[in-house]
Structure formats: structure tokens, C-alpha cells
Amino acid sequence: MSSRTFRVWRGEAGAGDFETFEVAVNEGEVVLDVLHRIQATQAPDLAVRWNCKAGKCGSCSVEINGRPRLSCMARMSTFDADETITVTPMRTFPVVRDLVCDVSYNYVKARQIPSFTPAAGTEPGELRMQQEDVQRSQEFRKCIECFLCQDVCHVIRDHEENKENFSGPRYLMRIAELEMHPADTADRRVIAQDEFGLGYCNITKCCTEVCPEHIKITDNSLIPLKERVADRKYDPLVWLGEKIGLR
Ligand code: SF4
Ligand code: F3S
Ligand code: FES
């Protein structure tokens, strides 16, 4: 057992400060274990959100030394022995208390996406898909909704004013998944750009870097979606159709 220094942000809705704790750490522990020890021994009212402690529920997202991470997957052994560990709530979302954020923005955006739309009259069990199409969707469905990609994206991280018009990488990925689904009949290219803010994304790839499920958000969903939007925009038939009011 060794002793480590933790700086933890404490406070509510914009008003708060760091509190420093000297805390014991055992071999094999993760940051969430240490936060729980602080809660058990020094700050019983410390607010920390978590659930599975296995990297699968997406609840324990925080920023550790400035980097968005799951606290249950951040091994203490990966930090230098004399390094102070600073833990802050996700910066993109309003703080409820201490390390707990209000992430309801994400659920609002999720609800705005038109749902899967198979051809009219399709009966259950009738759809057939190529394995390639199944695998593409499966990558996106590994998402645990930790919202770390949403937290890190610069479009909304320091720009509250963009939240209305930008759904963030997680939900642009959902639109891409549906747009690339062979049995979905809806054309989502116009809404991706006009209603969900695809054009705000300038492919910085920070979302991909922080994803704990290692989903290639940018390369496999955002860029292909941008290509589809561009294909539609510069399609001469679409241009002509819009001119004469058919599309
Ligand atoms: Fe988290 Fe990755 Fe899903 Fe974003 S795409 S919410 S980072 S699991
Ligand atoms: Fe944001 Fe990811 Fe695009 S971080 S700018 S959505 S590549
Ligand atoms: Fe579930 Fe960390 S507690 S992902």
C-alpha cells in the first residue's frame, strides 16, 4: 500500500474548488477505487457516478489530469509514483454536484433522430443482410454511451451556443449507422447536415482517441457520412431536381 495525492473538484453548478486528499492506494486499483476510498474515509458526501466497475455501463466518465476517461478503467499503476491525480467532472456538461454531470443533452439529441425505417409491409424475420453490413453496425453498437466523445469534441466543449445545432459524434455515428443500413429506407443526408450539424465536425478525431470501446468514430462513421452528404449535394440530378422542385 502507498499514499497518493488526489485533487478532486468539489462543488455545484459552476461554483466550486479543488479539494486535496492524501489517500492510500493498493496494488491493482483503479481511480474509481481510490475515489471510493476518499468517500469512505474522508469525504462521505463526495458525489461520484458509477455502476458496473467493468467498463461497460458508461457511468463513471470524468476527466483525469485533463483527459476524458472512465475512472473504473484508469489503472493507478499507469501514473508516475509522485504524480498528483486531478479528477474533474466532464467539462462539456453542467455539473450536478462534484464529479456528477447532467448528461441529458445527449438523450435529447438521441430522441431527435428518426428511428429505423424499413420498407412498408416488411414482416418480422423477412430482412436479410450481408455479413459485411452486420459487422459495420456491430462496431457502432459497441457504444456504451459514456459520452466521453461528446465531452472531448471542441465544437461543444467550450461552445454552449453550438449545442442546439450539433448532436455530437455519438449521435452523428447513430445517423451514419442508419444511413448505411441496407434495409433502412429513409434518406438522412439532408438532416445530418442541416439538423444535426455534421458540417461543424472538422475531423479532429479527438472523439475516436478517447472512445473506451475503440470505435473508429471518425474514420468509419463521420467521414463516410460526410462523403454521402457531399455525393448528394454535388449530384447533378439532385441539383436539377431541386431547381425544378422535384427533390
Ligand atoms: Fe463512449 Fe465511444 Fe460511445 Fe462515444 S462512441 S459514447 S466514446 S463508447
Ligand atoms: Fe468533434 Fe470528432 Fe469531429 S471530436 S470535430 S466530432 S472528428
Ligand atoms: Fe461502468 Fe465505469 S462504472 S463503465
From TrEMBL:
Pathway annotation from the record: Carbohydrate metabolism; tricarboxylic acid cycle
One Pfam family of this chain: Fer2_3
Keyword DNA repair listed: no
Entry keywords, A to Z: 2Fe-2S, 4Fe-4S, Iron, Iron-sulfur, Metal-binding, Oxidoreductase
Cofactor(s) named in the record: [3Fe-4S] cluster; [4Fe-4S] cluster; [2Fe-2S] cluster
Residues annotated as domain 2Fe-2S ferredoxin-type: 4-91
Protein family according to the UniProt entry: Belongs to the succinate dehydrogenase/fumarate reductase iron-sulfur protein family.
NCBIfam families: dhsB, PRK12386.1
PANTHER family in the cross-refs: SUCCINATE DEHYDROGENASE [UBIQUINONE] IRON-SULFUR SUBUNIT, MITOCHONDRIAL, SUCCINATE DEHYDROGENASE IRON-SULFUR PROTEIN
Protein's UniProt name: Succinate dehydrogenase/fumarate reductase iron-sulfur subunit
